[in-house]
Amino acid sequence: MKIIQAIKKANAPFVFKGCSSGKHLKNPLVLVFGNRYMLETNSIYEEVKELFTDAHVVFGSTSGEIMDDTVLDGTIVLTAIEFEKSSILVHRSNVGEHNNNDENLGQHLMAQFPKEDLKHLFIISEGSTVNGSALINGLEKHKHSMISLSGGLCGDDDRFERTLVSYNENPKEGEIVAIGFYGSSLEITSANFGGWTPFGPERIITKAQDNILYELDGKPALDLYKNYLGEKAKELPKSALLYPLSVRTSEESEPLVRTILNIDNKENAMILAGDVPIGSKVQLMMSSVDDIASGAYSAAELAMKGRNKNPEIALLISCIGRKLVMDQRTEEEIEEVKSVIGNSTVITGFYSYGEMAPFQGQDQCKLHNQTMTLTLFSE
């Protein structure tokens, strides 16, 4: 596996790290994560294509870019990977092509990939309107249990205006890109961990539809949530990132963390990143800088557990809510990850509106919020 990285700042060309260009790589996968405004430049795809003429180029907008142990804002980070013993296949689709039925979209994408030798599917999804839970349900419906799945929902800082994704074209809205990794030599592991603590009374979801929450204990959910936030309610939906919801669908199930992506004052409802089934138990959550850093360390330990080889590259997807809590200390969670996976592993990734990974010891992928998610690759 050959890996090179580059960074682009506003009104400047890409600057490569440790080399002068990427033209020596053959058919690389080029992951381009960046600030939404910078990705809206009409020439961005051509600019990357000039650097890598025969590349598979995947773009995704972010709420912060990750390169090595550094967290950046207002930049574009590029990571190009040439696989020496394995291969990739990339497919894309758009929510508008499936009448906004995200589960059907997931099924359609999964059907595009031949199953023989498919080890892993990595998803880079638009994050503004997609129901991540439904998308994953569609992907999982016909996925063999031996095929692992991870990824994330793209971000737009804390604006929640629009997110951009694309494959081999300029980034645009509504896109979901799936990257399939093939080959017996590949070792790919993924894991996630949060670090958030529930507080306050536990309430029952009494009215909801998919990812829209209407009522808790028979009362308007948004009114209750605003009462808890107090003065911070004026800053919604941004302030909701500091107080996500813990959702437990049954006594036996692992609790899922759900971020509030938007609010509907007319319907007195909250729009979440994933499904919130009726009958589920809900609590507010909060966290501290130290808890989030510790959670990142735990996520890295889980991802490394049982591996045969040291990872050559790590794709990190962490939540915008964690970044807001960490503030000036955001890089500490990346440093915690690096202390576990080692200095020789190339690190890239972004801050997101949602993360995709299975719980430890489970095969089926889930949508998470407010977690650090790692996907580790080696050949």
UniProtKB/TrEMBL annotation:
Domain of life (superkingdom): Bacteria
A Pfam family reported for this protein in Swiss-Prot or TrEMBL: FIST
Domain FIST C-domain stretches: 221-359
InterPro entries per UniProt: FIST_C, FIST_domain_N
Domain FIST: residue ranges: 26-220
Descriptive protein name: Uncharacterized conserved protein, contains FIST_N domain
Organism listed in the record: Maribacter sedimenticola
